[in-house]
Amino acid sequence: MNKFESELKKGNFIISECSDCKEIVWPPSNYCNKCFGHVKWRKPSEIGKLIEFSKKENVNFCIAEFEEKIRIMGTLIGEIISPKIGQRVKLKKCGLNDGQFNFTMALI
Ligand SMILES: [Zn+2]
Fold it and tell me: What is the whole-number distance in angstroms between the Cα of residue 17 and the centre of ligand 1?
């Protein structure tokens, strides 16, 4: 289990950023995929934007983008009337269950 997964399991969403070229490394890794530098781990912004939205059996799913780079899929909770692509979302909860990432987001 890498640091990303062990933190996610505790409910913390962290990302890796290269110490040398400052690129966000996504999917998260201990080394930069551009310059192979070491990374440091930090919390990303909890505010992202809606990229895709779908509904299946009364559960709302979405893909949201954080920090202009990180795209994650999750469930969308709260009042959803007419979601618009690009609308802002906030990360509410995250975790790791049975090896599966799960993210819960809400429109803001
Ligand atoms: Zn780098």
Answer: 8
Same domain, 34 and 63: no
Which whole number is the average pLDDT over 27-44? 95
Question: Residue 49's beta-bridge partner residues?
Answer: 65, 88
pLDDT 10s digits, 53-90 = 999 999 999 999 999 999 999 999 998 888 899 999 99
Extended strands (E) in 19-99: 24-25, 39-42, 47-56, 59-66, 70-77, 88-97
Report how far ligand 1's centroid is from the alpha carbon of 30 (Å).
11
CATH for 77: 2.40.50
Domain count, the chain: 2
Regarding whether 87 and 63 lie in a shared domain, the answer is yes
- What's the mean per-residue pLDDT of the chain? 95
